[in-house]
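[09:14] KT: can someone run the structure on this one? pasting the chain below
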Amino acid sequence: KYLKTERRREVAERLHNAIDDGADVLENAEYEAAMNEQAFVEGRISDLEDMLSRVKVVEVSKKRSGLVELGSVVKIQEEDFDPEEYQIVGMAESDAENGKISMDSPLGKALYNHKAGDTVTVDAPAGKFKVTILEVN
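[09:31] RB: done, structure tokens below
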């Protein structure tokens, strides 16, 4: 909402002011910067609207199956490494540095529908490796 209302208006004002400065728009750095910002804002609005048009509400069952599913917090361990904990999320929410991995990522796909105690093979771009699922919450 902010982008479509306030930010659009701010960028339009910058464009208007740059044009009002009277300089040739072809040699006006402020005009060029405002045009670039307008293109960025409009592109971002378009991306967000597209993403929102494809959103699906997923019901997470209150009764957990014990299997890794969307929303699960999973503790895993690769041999010779410390355990790591990740939450399984949708692609738009993924942020591996903060422990959120997409269910569409190689690790997410490997873990999906498995339970604590299972060892799964992850087919990552850097090569295959195995992890053991320690906990599923």
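[09:33] KT: thanks! The chain has two domains: 3-53, 73-136.
[09:34] RB: yep, looked fine to me
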